[in-house]
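Q: For a teaching handout, I want to show students what a protein-ligand complex looks like in token form. Below are the inputs, and the small molecule is NAP. Please produce the holo structure.
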Amino acid sequence: MLSLEGKVALITGFGQSEPEGWGIGSAIAVLFARQGAKIFGGNRTLASAELTKSRIEAEGGICDIMVGDVTDSASMKALVDACFSKYGKIDILVNNVGHSEPGCPATMPEDVWDKQMNVNVKAVYLSCRYVLPIMEKQETGGSIISIASIAGLRYIGKPQVGYSAAKAAILQFTKATAIIYASKGVRLNTVVPGLIATPYSNAMAKRYAPDWKLDEYLAMRNAQVPMGRMGDAWDVANSALFLASDEAKYITGQKIVVDGGITSSTGRPF
Ligand SMILES: NC(=O)c1ccc[n+]([C@@H]2O[C@H](COP(=O)([O-])OP(=O)(O)OC[C@H]3O[C@@H](n4cnc5c(N)ncnc54)[C@H](OP(=O)(O)O)[C@@H]3O)[C@@H](O)[C@H]2O)c1
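A: Here is the structure, written as tokens, with NAP included.
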């Protein structure tokens, strides 16, 4: 079950923003390698990609890394070309990069809005632009998984209008592209994390609640979840694994929400 033996997985946002703990991209990469995939990782900086590579190789997995900025077309083409020229195929693409900046339309400067669109949604377009022509020629097709956010489904308590709009766009981009490619053997789906405890969420605390102590901020996030706690990177990685695997071969254009119940609740006690 859920074997990725013989498959090649290209993953963007391969590192994690802080060395401690587990980022989502790093957990996905390690889990996919454990299931037998050969991993090709792209990241803005090589330093944080090295961490994930060393985790994979410590368990005997196979991993290459290179610089790949998801907002830069030439950089993404070079990343895809490098993976394809090494293995002659790409079975799985994971679009993991995402970044949130605070603001509503009146307070978010235009350049920040543009960067939010680029890093969150144009990034998915660019990687698909280069990977889809490869996958559609493969007899076994391919599986593309993009990491969205419940901020693309709901207002989640803080103004981050660029991030919310971009993550919602990923959901519709995925549905529309999934239909276009359904008859070509390429599946596209999203994993939609809720509040997940990662190095990224610690960094967010500094941006969104600079006056709070980190443990108070994390306790507040735990209390927002019907299950009483944030998820972790493995909760997201396990869903990505299912969507990447042949067990999900009849699933396309869908999302798996991994949120401990948040989006099924009004958030108010009665
Ligand atoms: N954590 C949560 O609570 C949560 C909730 C919902 C959704 N998500 C989503 O989950 C995804 C991953 O989160 P994560 O915890 O793995 O994040 P992360 O720890 O910030 O890791 C993402 C990696 O992406 C890299 N990166 C940033 N900008 C890049 C660019 N332009 N091109 C290439 N790489 C770039 C970073 O590189 P550097 O190391 O060089 O900075 C970092 O290593 C994101 O899409 C996020 O929006 C997270």
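A: Two things your students might notice: DSSP finds eight helices and nine strands in the chain. The first helix runs from residue 24 to 34.
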